[in-house]
């Protein structure tokens, strides 16, 4: 044992073996770093931070191995295995393992104990989780994905679980209002964006109820929800997982849960006439994305390709919607939607924006701070109105609807796509799938906002002249949609993939209202293959 002179905790260094190779292994308990290197050339050097060690186990070298050439004529070897995070391509994480052995049983135990002590210091890791599985999400593989890929990792990491297979829509949400939530260090949902939305509504709703906050009041200061949500992707789009982790991979997500990552996330509330409708974290879309969702819900039997089918059909229908958008610009944030400053792990734009909001709150008082500023008003005919709380990246659109939207800056990117030709709209949609700038069109506008409202034209007209509704609607029907004979009362918003039927809405972004077991998308340089070979 190496004793540092300055009273720091000693570093453990030993000569151990890996298979037939001798190696030196060091555990720096102060830095929380496990390092090993070959005793002979090529002297490769590896290191793993304790924060990325999943588990340490004593390993039995079985009879067969002992009698093989490797261990023959040797005293009984004692071994331990370290399981740790290995970074693969495209933000994908895997569980790797390395077995070390020696003939000194005491030394082996010292290593096991020291590593376990270090793991005990990782206090942000969950020990007990509540898991909801939607057996019907995506390709209906949620249960299998959990049992085969996730449960074994949780058990390796000594995480205990209570698992509920949902029996109907809203099962998870309703259950979260009743369950003894204090028992758990987090809630995991296995499914798609709809399941995340359910769990989020359950947890945020429960937190407000317990704190006596009325969700129907659009101005109420909501209480932050501190129970972290883990998302095991098993849905059709998995946008929330993809945009917060970088990939929709169940093993990667399970590992982020195990190491106890925390990612604060903005949540927006949607109200209509002082009645709470819904929260969302990814996309609130009207026009194109609302219509795609409405049509695709009728085609759930098609599975995940329903979105492609309905997308094509909606594209051909080329409906546009007339109305007024009012928004309050997000002055507190340093970013802007076209600045190419992407939200990455430890994002300083998110940190500084949150600080700025807190300062405003201190200066002007809760409730009075948020409405400050000048509202802007835009009237027009829109093919799509999208409010992206995050990039909305997903496998269909790897950079998302607003590539530089921030996860936790207290703002959303409001994208207005004005009426244009089918060909131009196609060019816009195609840019969701390639590297070109989707905001570089004369018919597309994007604003970073704190709040916004939308009122549909036919409702504005209704307000001014209620008697003539039938005539007016018929008039608009003929004028705007002469070919497709569409139903003008299509008022569906796509709210995190859930339908919301109200054309007039009021939206407010709540900075960092909830937390995920994630860390955001890592910078490419830190997502090299680990353990880091030095
Ligand atoms: N047992 C169940 N039976 C029917 N519906 C359920 C059940 N459990 C959950 N749901 C509902 O199913 C809806 C869709 O589920 P989910 O989001 O998991 O999959 P998806 O829609 O295929 O994926 P995505 O939202 O990523 O496109 C959710 O809104 C949820 O409320
Ligand atoms: C003809 C080329 C068309 C290409 C169109 C690509 C568009 C990709 C759009 C991806 C949608 C991302 C937004 C995600 C929304 C989710 O909340 C929701 C629920 O999972 N998913 C959908 C598809 O509405
Ligand atoms: Ca945001």
CA gyration radius, whole angstroms = 27 Å
> What is the count of helical runs?
13
As for the CATH topology of the largest domain, it is Tumour Suppressor Smad4
Helicity, in percent?
25-40%
Mean pLDDT: 89
Terminal CA distance: 23 Å
Spatial shape: elongated
CATH class categorisation of the largest domain: Mainly Beta
Oligomeric composition of the shown chains? single chain
Strand content: 25-35%
EC number: 2.7.1.138
Domain DAGKc: 124-274
GO biological process, one term: ceramide metabolic process
Enzyme class: transferase
Give the tags.
534 residues; binds adenosine-5'-triphosphate; Rossmann fold; 22 strands; five-stranded antiparallel β-sheet; 13 helices; binds the ligand CCCCCCCCCCCCC/C=C/[C@@H](O)[C@H](CO)NC(C)=O; Tumour Suppressor Smad4; elongated; alpha+beta; 3 domains
Provide a brief overview of the structure.
The protein is α+β, with helices and mostly antiparallel strands. 27% of the residues lie in helices and 30% in strands.
